[in-house]
Amino acid sequence: MEEHTHHIARQHSAPAPGLQRLAEASVWLSSAALRRRPLRVAPLRQGVGAGRVQHGEWQALLLRFVRDGVVDYVTLRRVRRLLEAYLERLAEHDPERFADADDQLAFYLNAYNAIAVYQIVIHPGARSLREVPGAFTRSFAVGRRNLSLHALHGGVLRAFGDPRVHVAIVPAARGAAPLQAQAFTGASLQAELDAALRRLLADPRRGARYDAARNTLWLSPIFGWFAGDFLYPQAMPGLRGLLAGWRHPQRVVSVLQPYLPPEIIAALAQHPTVRFLAFDWSLNDRPAH
């Protein structure tokens, strides 16, 4: 992803994140330091490997229980066995033998999101994934490896060198990108990742919001925590530039510009100050009635 710095001429210094925001970031950033044996990433071949693995069970569950990024965990618990069957089947495949990087990445993205959902399903009292003991460190059998959510995020997904993975994974939180109501597929993964990034940035509550009265552009903290990945994708999965967004937020905006809604692109002419929203870890479930 190429860097563009000419869209925003005036630089603004973002304040150092407070203790609360550092605590929010710790769950995500701690995964960036996890490095296991190198992952074999296949060449990018425009989905030629698509279809090698069918994600039918996960697709059916998403279609039935996800609406506008909100998950009906209560009803999903009644068919918990279907989700468990899908997770069991993830262990049977070896993604490192897939012919296409997109098919590999789709496999791991689906695995992350399914594991996150499953942990909420088996802990009905949890109001956040952070309330589930060991939620980010408990290992699951995924593609001939034992991987936790931390390891999937930091050591596997980031190895593909595509910062859009940060908006494709959903740790069962309202502050994350909306969980899409379909499984990722290798054949259309590039379009799906673009759509996920645009969908988050189009959401003023958690993605991007322009405050005209204060001439301030508010962005998801994901773009602050993982600014280095958006600015230097060729350096992924290393630690280069992580948190760079807090120091130079205007550079992150220039990279995101092709995905921003038209009204926010127009507002960039006002050279807004860039700030980051607080991350909402509350559960992405249906509100109680």
Summarize this structure briefly.
The protein is mostly helical and 289 residues long. The chain has helices spanning 19-32, 56-65, 73-76, 80-90, 101-121, 149-156, 165-168, 189-201, 222-225, 227-231, 244-247, 249-256, 262-267; strands at residues 66-67, 70-71, 140-142, 145-147, 208-211, 216-219, 273-276. Helices cover 39% and strands 8% of the residues.
List the helices and strands and how they pair.
Blueprint lengths: L18 H14 L23 H10 E2 L2 E2 L1 H4 L3 H11 L10 H21 L18 E3 L2 E3 L1 H8 L8 H4 L20 H13 L6 E4 L4 E4 L2 H4 L1 H5 L12 H4 L1 H8 L5 H6 L5 E4 L13
Strand content: 5-15%
Q: Give Rg in angstroms.
A: 18 Å
Major beta-sheet overview: 3 strands, mixed
Helix and strand sequence: HHEEHHHEEHHHEEHHHHHE
Poorly predicted regions are 1-19
Structural class: mainly alpha
Round the mean pLDDT to the nearest integer and report it. Answer: 85
Helical run tally = 13
Principal-axis shape: globular
Estimated helix fraction: 25-40%
Terminal CA distance: 44 Å
Major sheet strand order:
5-6-7
Give the beta-strand count.
7
3D architecture notes:
- This protein is mainly α and 289 residues long.
- 39% of the residues lie in helices and 8% in strands.
- The chain is built from 13 helices and seven strands.
- It has a three-stranded mixed β-sheet. A two-stranded antiparallel ribbon has the order 1-2. Strands 3-4 form a two-stranded antiparallel sheet.
- A hairpin with a 2-residue loop joins strand 1 (66-67) and strand 2.
- Helix 1 crosses helix 6 (149-156) and helix 2 (56-65) packs antiparallel against helix 4.
- It is globular.
- It starts with 18 loop residues before the first helix and ends in a 13-residue tail after the last strand.
- The model is unreliable at 1-19 (pLDDT under 50).
